[in-house]
């Protein structure tokens, strides 16, 4: 046999094997007390059989939760059972242990190597529903019965616990690849919610068993009616005490019929009553004066129900909402005329051969009843039977099977873009980091799905930001992450109390730190004071290897101020992080020496616009004398900006230059600064030469940067970082004197801090005054440098690449799963089984191996198919 034929036969064999799907069905709906004997359980069982009847070559296996009632013997006899045991106890503890059980169950399902996973009912409180992380089965589906709790939330979700439970499960529903709706009405209800990134929703319809027929033994039927004490020609209502079944509406509508019709056609109500419901409805019937014309049978057997359908004059079903409405189909298939509601799925399953009315209008319902009673019972019976025959479980099973056969297997979460939790202060919080963070997310939002995480105690985020992004508080983050896991957490950390809320989050959710300040002593002091850091400052110092300082602080022999300036206190945060981003080479070198994680350096984003006005025009706008020699300091902070040294240098300038000088100090608290400098200004005779301007506005600072002859941007202690204000001034083409060594020669002039500040400042100011052409060259170099190295085109790709690579690395190391499981274990109130950690690790390994195997098999089959076709055609 030639190699070509061998390859072709191999490929044909692979394709045949691909058709024999392994369908793993989560049948806990056949076990729970809420569903196993009700409509959801009956639908699930019938659908399973329907799929099997149309795809007998498929391997269909059933998941049984060993902590619930066993699956019925007739199902066990027909299908193989895969037993799943939740790692933690069920019963009252099930909800408390929910997240851990669900994560474990997800890995268990992935390890089973099924082609399709089908959940028969997600909204089962006793059941365990899988919560998938980075891996999942190739195809995941769930049956969508209805959205009744959402549509009638005041009735069903009044209790906060019920609302939380439903919300959690609804999010799990939305994470499936496909939802199999039981009616077009249910499908449309879901689509109307406009869920972000919704699953595919397909209507597979429903059906009823063949047990319901129009013919019956007259003698048997008569015996049933006599046993139940029922008259001939009665109107049958089959519903329940649930308010949406509208039993009061049915009773009221019947009471609006002419008395002669009420007497001839009693209303027979058949349903199970619980508690004192039967008495309540008996009292209601008495109040309506219908005791003689309305009868309550209570619950009846399936055989009795069939007899009632076959013998009733008509079937009445004025339900407010039905996902499917099986009783309507049962009645039609039994040959009974039907009067039902004109809402939800009932027009689909009642068809044009039924009488319909508004369920909230008793008068319209009564009119429909009267119209139906005017038509002989047998007149349209054949049409009713023909309509009911359209609905079969084989048809429903075929629709479901075609959905999975048409799907491309999913190998990763369905999210189109990686989801990022962006933890940062934002405007109107008065910090430069907040504004910078906003600039970044506006650039990155097309590549990532970004949600903003802010301090619950901070001012409300500006409306123009909330309109573009989902904004959640630190208190909401964990539940949001549990419902729809983020791919990455990004923390913008600075040395200020604005950031202290981030420390508990970082402890629970590892992520990327964007380190705006290398020294974080102020942050830790605030976090400890507010209870955001679990240990004392002395313990934190000891943990970072500064035991001597810890002892000095404990004994009162050193101050907090000294500690904050002497010790970075950033090591604990690096231990909780995946990677670090810094904006200076100085910080990069130091973080690299401390942190055993990736450290990325790239310049800070700053894309300056061209100054709208020339320096002369800006001076005119700002009321600055045209011939003044303007020295500006932007973003002044008394403790670090070395203003006293600047004033000393100005005082030592030659008298002719000093006379022309105008010093403008722009900062956050000008009144306080002016008061603190008053004595020195008076002593140096500079009071009239110095103006303190209170502003942090980037627009205002930019205008003064353009108007100034020189911008003096000193900082001590020296961190060799380019401050935001220095970068702003450079971007506006200002001639800057700075203390950083981060800038290339010719972009700014360097002042040696702290011991040579006064001399260097004096000499440089004189030189620039005497050589304006040199100052102009520095201005040109500064603006060109910022445009070249700090532009969006340079910085954003680097930032995006770093985030993407971190996400990839986390997924390769299975870090999202490990983080999530660690959190679940830490927060679980129960005592964990002794071998859980090892067994779960083994299970996850199997799940990962299965995922890789399926990917390789799919790729191999596809590649071989292309190769085979190519060789055969050749």
TrEMBL record:
GO biological process, any: lipopolysaccharide biosynthetic process
Gene3D superfamilies from the UniProt entry: Glycogen Phosphorylase B (3.40.50.2000)
Record's keyword annotation contains Transferase: yes
Coiled coil (residue ranges): none
Alphabetized InterPro entries for the sequence: Glyco_trans_1
Domain of life, source organism: Bacteria
Keywords from the named record: Transferase
GO molecular function: glycosyltransferase activity
Pfam assignment, any one: Glycos_transf_1
Domain Glycosyl transferase family: 232-376, 617-740
Stated name of the protein: Glycosyltransferase
Organism (species): Bremerella cremea
């Amino acid at each position: 046999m030639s190699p070509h034929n061998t390859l072709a036969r191999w490929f044909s064999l692979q394709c045949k094997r691909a058709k024999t799907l392994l369908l793993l069905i989560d049948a806990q709906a056949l076990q729970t007390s809420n569903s196993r004997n009700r409509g959801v359980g009956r639908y699930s069982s019938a659908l399973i059989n329907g799929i099997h009847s149309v795809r007998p070559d498929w391997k269909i296996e059933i998941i049984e939760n060993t902590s619930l009632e066993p699956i019925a013997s007739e199902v066990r006899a027909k299908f193989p059972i895969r037993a799943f045991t939740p790692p933690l106890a069920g019963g009252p503890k099930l909800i408390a242990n929910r997240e851990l059980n669900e994560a474990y169950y997800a890995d268990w399902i992935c390890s089973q190597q099924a082609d399709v996973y089908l959940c028969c009912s997600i909204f089962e409180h006793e059941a365990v529903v899988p919560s998938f992380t980075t891996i999942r089965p190739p195809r995941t589906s769930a049956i969508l019965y209805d959205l009744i709790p959402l549509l009638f939330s005041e009735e069903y979700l009044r209790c906060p616990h019920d609302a939380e439970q439903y919300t959690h499960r609804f999010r799990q529903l939305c994470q499936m690849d496909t939802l199999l709706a039981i009616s077009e009405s249910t499908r449309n209800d879901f689509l109307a919610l406009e869920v972000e990134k919704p699953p595919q929703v397909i209507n597979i319809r429903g059906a009823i068993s063949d047990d319901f027929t129009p013919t019956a033994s007259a003698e048997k039927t008569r015996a049933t009616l006599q046993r139940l004490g029922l008259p001939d020609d009665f109107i049958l209502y089959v519903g329940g005490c649930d308010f949406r079944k509208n039993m009061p509406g049915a009773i009221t509508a019947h009471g609006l019929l002419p008395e002669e019709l009420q007497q001839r056609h009693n209303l027979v109500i058949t349903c199970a009553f619980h508690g004192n419901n039967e008495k309540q409805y008996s009292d209601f019937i008495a109040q309506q004066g219908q005791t003689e014309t309305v009868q309550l049978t209570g619950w009846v057997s399936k055989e009795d129900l069939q007899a009632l359908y076959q013998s009733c004059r008509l079937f009445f079903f004025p339900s407010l909402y039905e996902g499917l409405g099986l009783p309507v189909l049962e009645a039609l298939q039994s040959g009974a005329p039907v009067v039902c509601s004109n809402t939800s799925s009932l027009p689909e399953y009642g068809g044009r051969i039924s009488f319909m009315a508004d369920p909230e209008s008793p008068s319209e319902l009564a009119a429909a009843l009267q119209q139906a009673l005017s038509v002989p019972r047998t007149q349209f019976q054949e049409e009713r039977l023909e309509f009911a025959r359209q609905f079969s479980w084989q048809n429903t099973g075929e629709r479901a099977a075609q959905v999975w056969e048409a799907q491309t297997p999913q190998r990763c979460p369905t999210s189109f873009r990686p989801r990022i939790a962006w933890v940062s202060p934002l405007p109107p919080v008065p910090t430069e980091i907040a504004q910078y963070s906003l600039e970044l997310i506006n650039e990155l939002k097309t590549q990532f799905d970004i949600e903003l995480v802010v301090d619950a105690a901070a001012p409300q985020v500006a409306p123009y930001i909330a309109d573009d992004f989902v904004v959640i508080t630190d208190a909401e983050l964990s539940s949001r992450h549990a419902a729809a896991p983020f791919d990455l957490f990004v923390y913008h950390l600075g040395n200020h109390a604005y950031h202290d809320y981030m420390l508990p989050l970082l402890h629970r959710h590892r992520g990327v730190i964007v380190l705006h300040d290398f020294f974080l002593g102020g942050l830790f002091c605030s976090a400890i004071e507010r209870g955001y850091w679990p240990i004392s400052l002395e313990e934190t110092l000891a943990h970072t290897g500064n035991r001597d300082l810890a002892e000095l602080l404990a004994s009162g022999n050193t101050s907090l101020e000294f500690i904050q300036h002497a010790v970075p206190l950033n090591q604990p945060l690096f231990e909780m992080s995946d990677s670090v981003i810094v904006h200076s080479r100085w910080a990069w070198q130091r973080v690299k020496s401390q942190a055993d994680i990736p450290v990325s350096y790239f310049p800070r984003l700053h894309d300056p616009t061209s100054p709208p006005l020339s320096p002369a025009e800006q001076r005119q706008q700002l009321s600055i004398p045209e011939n003044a020699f303007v020295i500006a300091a932007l973003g002044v902070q008394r403790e670090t900006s070395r203003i006293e040294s600047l004033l000393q240098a100005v005082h030592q300038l030659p008298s002719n230059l000093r006379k022309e000088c105008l010093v403008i100090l722009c900062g956050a608290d000008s009144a306080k600064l002016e008061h603190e400098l008053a004595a020195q200004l008076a002593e140096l005779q500079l009071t009239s030469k110095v103006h303190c301007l209170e502003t942090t506005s980037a627009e205002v600072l930019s205008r003064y940067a353009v108007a100034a002859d020189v911008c003096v941007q000193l900082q001590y202690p020296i961190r060799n970082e380019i401050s935001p204000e220095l970068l702003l001034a450079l971007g506006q083409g200002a001639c800057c004197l700075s203390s950083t060594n981060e800038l290339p020669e010719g972009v700014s002039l360097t002042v040696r801090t702290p011991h040579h500040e006064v001399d260097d400042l004096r000499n440089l100011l004189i030189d620039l005054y005497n050589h304006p052409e040199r100052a102009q060259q520095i201005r040109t170099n500064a603006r060109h440098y910022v445009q070249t190295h700090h532009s969006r085109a340079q910085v954003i790709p680097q930032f995006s690449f770093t985030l993407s690579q971190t996400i990839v690395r986390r997924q390769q190391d299975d870090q999202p799963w490990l983080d999530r499981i660690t959190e679940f274990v830490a927060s679980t109130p129960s005592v964990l089984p002794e071998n859980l950690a090892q067994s779960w690790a083994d299970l996850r390994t199997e799940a990962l191996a299965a995922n890789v195997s399926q990917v390789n098999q799919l790729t191999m089959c596809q590649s071989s198919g292309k190769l085979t076709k190519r060789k055969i055609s050749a």
